[in-house]
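Continuing from the previous page of notes. For each protein in this section, the sequence appears first, followed by its structure tokens. Read the first protein now.
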Amino acid sequence: MSLRLATFNVENLLTRFDFTGFRNQLRQDRVIKLFEVNSEGVYQQLEQARVIAATDDTRQMTALAIADADADILCLQEIDNMAALQAFEYGYLFRMVGNGYRQKFLVEGNDSRGIDVAVLMREETRDGQKIELRDIRSHAMTTYRDFDLFDEELALTNRIDDKIFKRDCLELDLLIGGRPLSLYVVHFKSMGNPRDGLDGRLSTMPLRRAEARAVRRIIEDRFGAGHTASKSFAICGDMNDYQERVDVIGRRGTDYRFEHRDEGESALDVFSHDGFAENVVRRRQPLDRWTLYHARGPQEQHLCQLDYIWLSPALAAHSAGRLPQIIRNGQPYRTIFPPGQEVERYPRTGWDRPKASDHCPVVMTLDLP
């Protein structure tokens, strides 16, 4: 019996406008910066028009990426609220591609912008097996004190009673055709600005490491430490960290070179160092594991994996012959693809926008034990 599981950061699926850019230039869209706008009322009108004009193309591409993933269970990140999820599912996934999701789950988390993780599920798998939710739990309120995770690194930016998860760890207890599956959906702390001589990734790594430790603790508390390997669980989401990357060397108008390199340290080592879980994307070739293109000019550009499906050893072993898919057709044209990986972009895709997302859906077909 098989199940298609996917994760996708759709980026800012919102039902509200953000007008803070009038006073905070860092939050003002680049197109409005081209014009002199002195009135806050005029700014709000322009911002509303800009967002509405751009959103339809963007969400059509988001829906096409989800349709191509064709998942039975879809883990999403950056969802405003249930109203946004319902409007997108009905207006785009169902009306546009004719294939929606009847089961929807979202719990408000901790993100200061109000973006949450969510799960969409079909009522049955493609094989006709019933998908049932037995229980759902949010761990958004868990603190460093609760799990005894506070240390000197965290003390530089946090307090002991602060919440561990900057969004949430949403735990779903499922039955797939009567077989158990535990699902953990996360969106770890984003990489921030450089601090104390460290780049944005390294300076925020203690926060993500604590989140990863907390996810592992939740799973070990559920099944018993040392007894998790034989259980069926998956950890899905945007983890904002990577254990390897592909450096893109060159600039537009010249030939690019692609160099793979392993990172010496990652928050995700918490999952992998002792075989606690398997990152199934590592089954693909080293240059073909990326889910996001990052660039700040020709001197800083690389491809990396930020979006993950981690499987328990038992689940990974039962799906040993399977390779995950990465849906890249919604990437903007500025994304640089290694040779042989080029795809046909969705209609109306732009150089930078519109696009489905900067992230790519990751899909894995699981053979359930």
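Done with the first. The second protein uses the same format. Note its length before scrolling.
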Amino acid sequence: MFERAAAGEPRPGRARRARAEGVWWQRWMPSALGRDVLGWWLVSRLALFVLSVSAPLLFNRGTDYPNVWRAWLQWDVWHLNAVAQYGYNHGEPSGAPLAAFFPGYPLLVHLVAYTGIGYVAAGIVVSAVASAVAGVYLARLAEYEFPELKGFGPHAAMVWYGAPVGVFLAAGYTESLFCAFAFPAWLAARQGRWARAAVFVALASTVRVSGLFLIFALGVEFLTSKKRDWLSLPWLALPLVPVLAFMAYLKQIHGSWFAWHQAQEKGWPRKFTWPWTSLQHTVEAATKGRFPADRTDWTWMFRAELVALFICLVLLVWLLWRRSWGESAWVAATLGAFCTSYWVFSLTRATLLMWPLWIGLAVLIKRKPWLGRLYLGLAIPLAAVWAAAFFTGRWSG
């Protein structure tokens, strides 16, 4: 024993401890898939940060030096921050009825803001962490759905991060956090882990009204899945609990179980409209710039809504052809909600929630690499334009 120690060899006890410590650290290290995804996440975050600093400076029309930090405080960020600061029973401090926004994201922003970094920065931090988590699970879901395409999961995260509307995955919006719950929820559902799926769908239901559509899709997936387990059926009621709790809370404050929907009707044109009438209104707004008449950015964004509508319809047809009933239910329910409003409004952002779209694009890119180059050649400039529009206060969906 003394000879071994003198020779500088580790003692058996230390060797065991060293191996144990190595395993402990390895558990915290991301896998190869995770490293690839986080690489794309980091590159896209850096690009958006550069745009957030440069766009307000380049497009500044005033004489004062612009506050580039305020570039992140646009549109719904005002309302979500107002919920985080004041809750739901202090009127309309941001100029809109706050009951339209579900509480999960503002609550998390409120907790992070306790660190003293402020609400805008807290929203950016929440979205940054959530988008990283969502990207990893999107890659895992992609590889689970298409196991024959080895190592293509990070491609799905790449096209998702590089989406034309990808700025909303970094800004203080709800999309990243919703996806951070929805993507692992669907992966669990596809694996037949219904309790785990229900828990994640319940969390997603606290973030956006889209959680209602996800609940519906989970039910369809359960009924059509070969991994259906009737003993797990009661778990599917769990996601309704936070939704009903939020509705009951609003009932105490505003006197209506559906105060969240009434708030959307009041603050945004979300009144029920027949789909053909909604499409007519959208086409008129895309061709005449009727709301408001002198805002060309609104005209172009409504044109983008029509493109997004076409893409989502193609996606729905593809999913039905593949007999992906759960995903079809998810996309159909989302489209149904948007196409029965006064006009198709913010569907461009909602495409970020449609994981089958990004997985489908990744499949095409894996099988046809030239399509990947074409996608990036179109998506990156569009993403830069979209981000510049957002950071300078123009309507960007």
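What the second structure shows: Residues 123 and 172 are 4 Å apart (CA to CA). The first helix runs from residue 2 to 6. We return to this in next week's lecture.
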